[in-house]
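Hey Z.,

So I finally got round to the flavin mononucleotide thing we talked about over coffee. Here's the setup:
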Amino acid sequence: MSNVLVAYTTQSGSTEEVAQAIADELSKAGLSVETRRLEEVATIEPYAAVVIGAPMIVGWHRAAMKFVKRHQAALSRRPVAYFLTAMRLTLTGQQTAQDVPLAIDPALAMPPRNPDRLGLKERYASPAHYAGDALDAAPMVRPVSVAIFGGRLDLYKLKLLPMLFVMAIIQAQPGDRRNWPFIRAWAAGLPDSFRAHPGWTAV
Ligand SMILES: Cc1cc2nc3c(=O)[nH]c(=O)nc-3n(C[C@H](O)[C@H](O)[C@H](O)COP(=O)(O)O)c2cc1C
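And the result:
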């Protein structure tokens, strides 16, 4: 049995449920899994592999950026996967960002108005930009995959400024966009990618 950590942060709870579904799939594959909020994780040394997830909140959630930066050296020595939850994503056809494989929820990604010339908001919501945020935070860490999943948005629970940002920039429709079969299929594929990584050690 190998210990895998699924570490996440959330603002409104939906990313936590995604983290739990991922942990469930990893357990089904025979791995021993711990699910923790990022704030609860002091060290990642005991874990053979780490999955890190957080919502896009004007960039990848700050707690996730800090976490990957702080644990960068240890993360760079073992298999790691990132996942992001988001409400708007531009369909660009990219399969990788900085040579890291992307897993893009096809139900979330929307084709741009003009594929030859993305608008500002379309570029903002592109996989390269979202994944780039996460990858640039800890350049030594090369995840086996960066997944971008649909999240959940309840506009009426937001304060005025966040609500205005989401309405004006993200232009997201409120609702639950989580695509459970896609999320679970991604998680089910992780054990093989972890085992193929040179830093994998069964503990
Ligand atoms: C202030 C704020 C900023 C957000 N920024 C983005 C964003 O830049 N891109 C995006 O696609 N979604 C954005 N979202 C939507 C969230 O990523 C989405 O609702 C996510 O599922 C929330 O996860 P949580 O329920 O775990 O907090 C934003 C939401 C809020 C409230």
